[in-house]
Amino acid sequence: MQVRVAGVALDASGQHVLLLKPIDEMPGDGYVLPIWIGQLEATSILVAVENAPVPRPLSHDLMRTILETLDAELVRVEVTRIEEGTFYAELTISTALGARVIDARPSDAVALAARVGSSIFVAEAVMSEAGVPDVLTDADTADSLDEFKRFLDDVEPEDFDG
What we know:
Elements: E1 2-10, E2 16-22, E3 31-37, H1 39-50, H2 59-69, E4 73-83, E5 86-95, E6 98-104, H3 106-116, E7 119-122, H4 124-130, E8 132-133, H5 138-154
Parallel strand pairs: 4-7
Antiparallel strand pairs: 1-2, 1-7, 2-3, 3-8, 4-5, 5-6
C-alpha cells in the first residue's frame, strides 16, 4: 500500500519514531506504521519533508545528487518485511542498465524518497503485523512540528559532522 510520512515523533523514552500512514486515510483514522529510527535519520527526514535549509548537504542529499549525476531515478521505496522487530526496505532505481533493487534501512529509504519525490510503499503483511491504530491528535502533530522548528533554530553545522 502506498503511504506518506505522517510525521516523526518522540516516544515516551525519547526515541525517534517515523510514522508512515496510508495516503488514503485521514489523520486519526485507520492505521499508522511506527518505525523507530535514529536522531540523525529523523533530522534528515524532517529536513526533507519541511524543505528546511541546511548549511551543508546531508548524506541523503549526496545520494540524490549521485542519482541525478548518473541519470538514475528512484522509482519507489518499499518497507518490505519485518523480522524480529527489524524493518527492511528496498529502493527501486531506474538506471541505463535497467531497474535495480537495493536493500536499505527504511529510514534511509524514506529520507531519500522525501528528497526526490518518490512514492513510498509498505507491504500489506508489514502493516498488518506492525501497524497500530492512528490516535494522533492535531495537538500532537503541532507539538512535533514546533519541536522541529526549535531544533532548526538551534542547530549548528558541527552537529552534522560524522
